[in-house]
Amino acid sequence: MPLLISEVESLVIARVAPNNAFGAWILGDMHSRPALVDAAKKSALASFAEATQAEEFMQLPAAWLEELLASDELAISTEEAAFTAIQRWHAAQRPPPDNGVVRTLLSRVRWALMDREYVREHVNAHPMVVANAMILATAFQEAVFGAKPLP
What we know:
Mean pLDDT: 89
Distance between the termini: 59 Å
Strand content: under 5%
Low-confidence stretches: none
Radius of gyration: 17 Å
């Protein structure tokens, strides 16, 4: 049986793509298959914007999303993609995640790299951001001045 399981895992890994990466990650985690989990993470990191369009993205635990956003291997064309992913994930959670979880996720966005107009039009008034505005102030001041703001 172990040989059969290993063979099936290899076949699944060979078919991991951005549109099914999160489903594969969930499956690999559920069945304790680290190689499948690693392949799924790599696919999601390499094509993050595409991967986040999959329905399974909405089922990810916050810690998994934070792991992806924190990774140096995350391939996104703009930071707006990271914010949009958090926004979509947040809107799908029932019950909504607590502010600590949201703050952790928002702290992974490189705010200073975002387009000014995008921030004005899509970020500033978003309830998720308004409730956690200090995280933006901290991130911006660290990026611009190299230090955290005073309390």
